[in-house]
Amino acid sequence: MTTVKVKLDSIEKIKEFNRIVCKFECDFDLEQGRYYIDAKSMLGILSLDLSAVLQLHFTTSEDEAASILDAIKDFIEE
């Protein structure tokens, strides 16, 4: 499982992030405290506190994980 911190603090960022993750076959979960939301669900993402940094979890092959991380690099928080 790969886990990265992401920041989705505007509607435009959410729309772009959702569009990117929907291109991939694996499941993506966003974690905020005790809540886990499907990252492919726009309504689910909008139900979270957008001012907070979120944990993104996904499981896939090493090659695809590298492609995913490259595709979402603008949203990753260090």
Walk me through the structure.
It is a single chain. The protein is α+β, with helices and mostly antiparallel strands and 78 residues long. The protein has a single domain (2-71), classed as 2-Layer Sandwich (Histidine-containing Protein, Chain: A), CATH 3.30.1340.10. 33% of the residues lie in helices and 24% in strands. The chain is built from 3 helices and 4 strands; from the N terminus they run E-H-E-E-H-E-H. Strands 1-4-2-3 form a 4-stranded antiparallel β-sheet, with no helix packed on it. A hairpin with a 2-residue loop joins strand 2 (28-32) and strand 3. The two termini are 18 Å apart. The mean pLDDT is 92.
Quick synopsis:
By secondary structure, the chain is of the alpha+beta class. The chain is built from 3 helices and 4 strands; from the N terminus they run βαββαβα.
Sequence-ordered SSE layout with sheet pairings:
Layout: E1 2-6, H1 11-21, E2 28-32, E3 35-38, H2 42-46, E4 54-58, H3 62-71
Antiparallel strand pairs: 1-4, 2-3, 2-4
Mean pLDDT: 92
Total beta-strand segments: 4
Strand line-up of the largest beta sheet: 1-4-2-3
User: Helical stretch count?
Assistant: 3
What is the CATH-assigned architecture?
2-Layer Sandwich
Radius of gyration (Å):
11 Å
N-end to C-end Cα span: 18 Å
Stretches with pLDDT under 50, minimum 5 residues: none
- Quickly give the structural class: alpha+beta
The 3D shape can be described as globular
Query: What is the CATH top level name?
Result: Alpha Beta
Following the backbone from N to C, one meets helices and strands in this order, namely EHEEHEH
The CATH homologous superfamily is termed HPr-like
Give the biggest sheet.
Answer: 4 strands, antiparallel
CATH fold-level name: Histidine-containing Protein, Chain: A
Strand residue percentage? 15-25%
The residue fraction in helices comes out at 25-40%
Number of domains: 1
